[in-house]
């Protein structure tokens, strides 16, 4: 076992920094927890499976503004309610394989 000695002031400083970090983490958790409790969020793969579409078609829906999304850590998430609304709206009935809508 290795023993490392540090000054008490350095240890106290580390404790204070860890306490501040813990407080920031708790505040962030309190801020965003209600958002995720209110709504179920889906990732790209889940949306593609649910809608029976390709990733390219999903990208087209995003680009055309048909399906709103949120980005978190370079990953897209979609509200389940938005996906269901798009499916129920029937806007996809005239969508071709390439994801474009032809009227």
TrEMBL record:
> Per its record, how is this protein called by name?
DNA-binding protein
Q: Which PANTHER family match?
A: HELIX-TURN-HELIX DOMAIN-CONTAINING PROTEIN, PTHR34585
Which one of the record's GO molecular function terms can you name?
DNA binding
> Would I find Heme among this entry's keywords?
no
Q: Name one Pfam family in it.
A: HTH_17
Organism's domain of life? Answer: Bacteria
What InterPro entries is this protein classified in? Answer: DNA-bd_dom_put_sf, HTH_17
* Keywords noted in UniProt: DNA-binding
Q: Where is the Helix-turn-helix domain?
A: 41-89
Q: Which SUPFAM superfamilies match?
A: Putative DNA-binding domain
């Amino acid at each position: 076992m290795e023993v490392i000695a540090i000054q008490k002031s350095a240890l106290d400083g580390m404790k204070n920094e860890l306490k501040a970090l813990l407080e920031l983490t708790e505040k962030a958790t309190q801020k965003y927890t209600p958002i995720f409790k209110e709504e179920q969020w889906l990732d790209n793969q889940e949306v593609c499976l649910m809608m029976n579409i390709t990733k390219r078609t999903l990208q087209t829906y995003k680009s055309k503004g048909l399906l709103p999304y949120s980005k978190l850590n370079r990953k897209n998430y979609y509200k389940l309610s938005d996906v269901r609304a798009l499916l129920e709206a029937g806007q996809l009935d005239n969508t071709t394989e390439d994801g474009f809508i032809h009227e």
